[in-house]
């Protein structure tokens, strides 16, 4: 009798829920809430992201909001700090911001000006890689603060939207996705 053990990617993929017409008609939203709600799914997610982490990382930058949920435990797991990149008006003190285009609109992200030291090795973490605009904006903020992006890790990559290629063209070639659809 053989027993099959699911890989972290299989666990995560099996828990992602597809929601049609959200946040607007024509958009197919991949919801990771069931992944996060499952102890097994959350552990598999964090373990896979830690396992793919570049060797030397000073700080994990998590993108609002679900990038916080998986980014913070990744930071703990690799022994680094954690920095949130947020929507405007959510962070105190001096901040810098960057506006960008999403697959279904426009958005702006911000980070505190003193979030990390210049030269810090940064791992960018988010839940979904679609067109790459959000990760590229987080990378631009990181670089504006003098950080060096050493990798990008996401739970889910939507390959048909070209995000990986867009990030490669932007100089962000080291991209890891737990699941690619």
How would you characterize this protein structure?
It catalyses: AMP + diphosphate = 5-phospho-alpha-D-ribose 1-diphosphate + adenine. InterPro entries: Ade_phspho_trans (IPR005764), PRTase-like (IPR029057), PRTase_dom (IPR000836), UPRTase/APRTase (IPR050054). Residues 53-156 form the Phosphoribosyltransferase domain. The mean pLDDT is 95. Helix content is 32%, strand content 33%. Strands 4-3-7-8-9 form a 5-stranded parallel beta sheet, with helices on both faces. A two-stranded antiparallel sheet has the order 1-2. It has a two-stranded antiparallel sheet with strand order 5-6. Strand 1 (17-20) and strand 2 (28-31) form a beta hairpin. The chain has helices spanning 8-15, 33-37, 39-51, 66-78, 133-144, 163-169, and strands spanning 17-20, 28-31, 59-63, 81-85, 95-102, 105-112, 121-129, 148-157, 175-180. The protein has 181 residues and is α/β, with parallel strands linked by helices.
